[in-house]
Amino acid sequence: MRPSHLHKEGHFVRRIGWIRAAVLGANDGIVSTASLIVGVAAAGATKGNIIVAGVAGLVGGAMSMAAGEYVSVSSQSDAENADLAREKAELANDPRFELQELTNIYIARGLDPDLAGQVAKQLMAKDALAAHARDELGISETTTARPIQAAMASASSFAVGAILPMLTVLATPVGAVVPVMFVASLFFLGALGAVGARTGGAKILKPVIRVMFWGAVALAVTAGIGTLFGIVA
Fold first, then answer.
1. Which domain holds residue 98?
2. Does pTM surpass 0.70?
3. Helix, strand, or coil here: 113?
4. Distance in angstroms (rounded) separating the CA atoms of residues 65 and 59
């Protein structure tokens, strides 16, 4: 029977690049900005000083995330391009060896030698470099490094995450900033963990507990440091 319609599959792995950058950026935005605010508030700062510290953390953190992600992913991209250039040269210099190499890969994956040879020949006839990039080097369109996309995702998601603690502190009396920020930040982190897990197709509970635990640790440490400096002052 012929299918009445085409079934287009959607795989979560296609989202892995931007999910990683976005979740990392938003998580860092919430944790670092909230921790900074809690630390400054615990030291006895005024509402104005707390807001200034939060804004500085938001802007500086977003720029740092963008630069760090761009440099990191660019290094990965450089390594991928170097491997592709080397593979292209090998294909030009010794195509028979490269054909046998690809055939051996398919044999190792379970194909019989004759079929593996036929598959390798057909794939190399269509696009030899793409076949070797995918099956020998593990480089594909899904996993290839995209520095600009990763940098923009990290910076924007950091800013979105950092805005949440900023809105919280604006709506909170200065004397209640520390406890309110604790509760609000853990709620934001839990929601982020749930969204990230759902988007990536994973179960929700474990990511939520993980992100809330480390967020609580960061907030507790900075609150303790802020209180210590406030007492010393």
1. 12-232
2. no
3. helix
4. 10
